[in-house]
């Protein structure tokens, strides 16, 4: 069985969106569609319901998925064992990441680990909300995780990855779309789009806090599961949203990003890990630190 087809299947099962999965695999969307079709033909059963959005796995897909993941993990370990130097540490390190803001970092992180610790396999675990990742590291379900301050779970340590500036995303026909900067009070009467209140989103909490400091509570009319969906709704004219500078690479047509007036304000993106990590986890941290030096603290308000 061609593991390339299994890799396409697993990525699509994670992203539930052909275009995003193709981007993660660095292939064209039609190529991904062909790979999924070939795998379904080989297995003799459809793996996805394509007529729903986001796409869903069929019962056959649900059954196949854990075995596909196991095959891919074994393939990685076989390849790494073959190239590892004598005495090299071998193993798998699970890394939790959340949302569009981290996606651009992952290819460089993987390349750095391949270069510095060829015996280590990174098991990337996509999460929807960074608020969940700290507890998963503490419980041992993850070895490392991208998160945001504050660090609330005991027994963990962290290092700063990025200072993410808070900005507004508005429809291109919004009166503020072409402003150089905008006061938060300008959106008092606008409908807002936000992450779900029950998921512990630091971005949502920051938006509500800033609006209340300006004298009002935002009127959230729609919640979205991720930045892709939220910015898509902004593009459709449903409302405005507070987001972070690290997702501006998405920028769907019809969306304008506008800085906040009165000085820049930041959330702190971090990488969290146990205070006593395994040897394999330490090697990954060393590779990450070499590739991504700690950024200087910016001028402005930093929420910690």
UniProtKB/TrEMBL annotation:
Gene3D superfamilies: Periplasmic binding protein-like II, Winged helix-like DNA-binding domain superfamily/Winged helix DNA-binding domain. PROSITE patterns: HTH_LYSR (PS50931). Residues 1-58 form the HTH lysR-type domain. Keywords: Activator, DNA-binding, Transcription, Transcription regulation. It holds the Pfam family HTH_1. The keyword Metal-binding does not apply. Transmembrane segments: none annotated. PANTHER family: HCA OPERON TRANSCRIPTIONAL ACTIVATOR HCAR, TRANSCRIPTIONAL DUAL REGULATOR HCAR-RELATED. Belongs to the LysR transcriptional regulatory family. This is LysR family transcriptional regulator. It comes from Corynebacterium hadale. The lineage of its organism: Bacteria, Bacillati, Actinomycetota, Actinomycetes, Mycobacteriales.
């Amino acid at each position: 069985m061609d593991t390339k087809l299994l890799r396409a299947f697993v990525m699509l099962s994670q992203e539930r969106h052909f275009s995003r999965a193709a981007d993660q695999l660095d292939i064209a969307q039609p190529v991904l569609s062909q790979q999924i079709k070939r795998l379904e033909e080989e297995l003799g059963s459809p793996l996805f319901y394509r007529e729903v959005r986001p796409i869903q796995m069929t019962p056959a897909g649900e059954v196949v998925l854990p075995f596909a993941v196991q095959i891919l993990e074994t393939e990685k370990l076989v390849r790494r064992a073959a190239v590892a130097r004598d005495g090299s540490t071998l193993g798998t390190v699970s890394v939790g990441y959340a949302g569009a803001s981290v996606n651009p970092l992952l290819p460089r992180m993987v390349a750095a680990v391949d270069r510095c610790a060829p015996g280590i396999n990174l098991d990337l675990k996509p999460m929807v909300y960074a608020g969940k990742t700290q507890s998963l590291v503490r419980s041992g379900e993850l070895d490392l995780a991208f998160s945001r301050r504050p660090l609330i779970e005991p027994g963990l340590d962290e290092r700063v990855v990025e200072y993410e500036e808070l900005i507004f995303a508005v429809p291109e026909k919004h009166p503020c779309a072409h402003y150089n900067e905008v006061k938060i009070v300008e959106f008092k009467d606008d409908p807002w789009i936000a992450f779900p209140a029950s998921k512990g989103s630091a971005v949502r909490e920051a938006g509500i806090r800033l609006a209340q400091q300006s004298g009002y509570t935002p009127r959230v009319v729609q919640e979205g599961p991720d930045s892709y969906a939220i910015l898509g709704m902004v593009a459709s004219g449903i409302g405005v949203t507070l987001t972070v500078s690290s997702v501006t690479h998405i920028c769907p047509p019809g969306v304008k990003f506008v800085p906040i007036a009165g000085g820049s304000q930041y959330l702190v993106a971090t990488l969290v890990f146990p205070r006593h990590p395994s040897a394999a986890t330490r090697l990954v941290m060393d590779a990450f630190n070499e590739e991504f030096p700690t950024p200087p603290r910016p001028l402005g308000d930093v929420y910690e």
